[in-house]
Fold each of these.
Amino acid sequence: MARFRWFTHSVPDGLPVRQVYGFLFASDGRVLIRVDGAKHSLPGGRPEPGERTYADILRRETYEEVTADITDPHYLGYQRVDDGIAPYAQVRMVASLAKVYPPAPDPDNGRTYRRLLVPPGRAGELLNWGVSGRKQASAAAAAAIAVLGLPHHDLPAPSYI
């Protein structure tokens, strides 16, 4: 069974990054969750050839999956995955939503995802990533306030966009 551990320092040299996901915040302080049937996740995915930065990966994946533009993403940390074969990193970033377009199919699989805005604490529950996921959501909420300058109280109820 895979083991997941959350770290807030840089990804160590030699640990491959297989995924980059983002906690993307609306101006009202809620975070965007990608909904695919009953599964909730963050926008993001795998690096593609030619992409040089985590921000490049997140920008592309965000547009492909949830048809939105984001501000300059900030590095949040990484989750180390020990799967019994070869450990790897899943990077997490935080950014503000700059513009949201009408939903469109993901070019990778043709599915159109629903987009749900929720308070950050609710994101940790919906992602269902256990202790590591709750730590990530908490770090993202703190970064949204400190780095992005977003509100942290009196947040609107969850809603689809």
Note: DSSP finds three helices and ten strands in the chain.
Amino acid sequence: MTDDFRNATLFLTKGALKVATAERLQALRDAGNRMLFDVVDEAPPPTTGFADALVAASITAFLDLQRDHPGIEVLLVNHHVDPRLDAAAAGDRPADRLRAGYFGELVNAVLSPAIEEIVTPVLVDTSRQDPAWLARVPEFNLHYAVRRFRAADLHKPFLKGFTAAHAGCNILIQRGQVEALHWLGDDYPYLIAGEPDDAAIVAELERLRDDFGSPAWQSGLETMRGVRERTSRQRIAAEVARALR
């Protein structure tokens, strides 16, 4: 991190915040810079006192940061989808029957042999650039997102929901995922109660298979179209512009 910036607005990523010392942040402040701390899905660092504003990447983070840091401005910049996704997902989704896929790191999902008889896992390795998963997006009309709880999880953006929405798909996820409820609403038809076991998940997937194409299915797609509109490039760009005012 350079100390050469003067009278600028600096957007510090969570990676930069891990290495930024109090001395360097003080130097940046003394140079008249406005500093935005983008914590994404982690807790604010010990150096948060140097922040002019905290940037939240989820609604739950926004609310919690406002509560826990009342003396610091909190800004909401929702997580964008992969910018290649809309082109990759152009066209219609399969309309013959339920075709469910999981996109993401496999360790994050509740998966089992019984679940994988219905859900096809598609690895998205976030540690490297590999666009292969994008070619598989058109194969599916349901995105599976039942998440395995991990102690490192704090404020996870609803990126799997945004991805499903931009792919023109419904999503299956736990009702207990609070961020998902903020976006989908309590009446979204494909929310599983509690922390379901394999049997409950398979039963819900079988119900979804029977529900495919029904009025409830169409209602879910309408909700997902709203999520897509709220996370369009234009909407996210406007959130960034407000933060950088």
Note: The longest strand covers residues 34-40.
